[in-house]
Amino acid sequence: MVDILDDRPLKGRGTHSNRAGRFEAHSRLRTDDGWARVGSDGWDGEADLEMAPATQVRLDTSRSVISYNDSPDVNFDRSINPYRGCEHGCVYCFARPSHAYLGHSPGLDFETILYAKRDAPAVLAKELRAKGYVPRPIALGANTDAYQPVERAERITRGVLEVLRDFRHPVGIITKSPLVLRDLDILAPMAADGLARVAISITTLDRDLARRLEPRAGTPQRRLEAVRQLSQAGVPVSVLASPMIPALNDNELEAILAAAKDAGAHQAHYILLRLPRELAGLMEEWLRLHVPDRADRVLSLIRQCRDGGHNHSQFGTRMRGTGAYAQLLAARHRLATRRLGLDQRRWDMRCDLFQPPPQPGNQLALF
Question: What's the chain's average pLDDT?
């Protein structure tokens, strides 16, 4: 595992290091002996670009695709993630540490070595037909984005939606990608039957900050346009002003919510930045590279919200934090959503329409 230590960001990537995951026995340090880049200022632009690794897509052959949870912090007990890793490259992504379980770095590996569950639609159909299966809303993309750039070619998410549509199964999508609009032909009819809803994540309205925080995600303006088109098509849509990063984008909370309302959102939520495991070091590297004048202030406020650490794992506080700053942020959100009419707690989704479609050879079931 090689740790890329540079004093400049890598083009199109959220992190600039590849520190070993917590399960690795060894790590290696990459150093510059002065000969690798020979430009007039000691750097060669073309070589610099080459340092940013290309995306690899590998096959994931998981035998199941539905993951179950018992967390009281979320309003779903099951989810599907068509991909492991995420090319959006969001530096703050709480899913980064999960890549360590695959023997990869939560840094650059997470956004460049992806695993695609190409059998997901077929596996899902089998799971939904299992005897005793009880339908409840499935969250699509709860860990990594189901509409990340590789979905354009892989089309796994669309295949999963086709299965859910055919089974009349409720689904809630969480994404920051305008690519979700591609599947309006499926989502709009499902939404009309109370079977679909979408949550769009908008971290900032500042396009430059978004480019650095989320280098391969859609711009804030395109995400707002996705909110507008989803709403106009009759798909219930909410906006996640997440994560709120103290002293970096927290001043935008009310502006994000107001823009969401103008675009047609019906509901809004937020999550305070979480920094589990390796993510704490990656986030600190990003802060010192991109906003060195505010890095210490951001890290100090995070610790104030996490009892002196970087993360809470306890249910009830991990999404919101504790302390004076966290309480102020919660109050601001509560007042803004109430004023804008975005404080609806949840939507009811229909589970009573669930019906596995007939398979070849099932004709006798009609008599």
Answer: 89
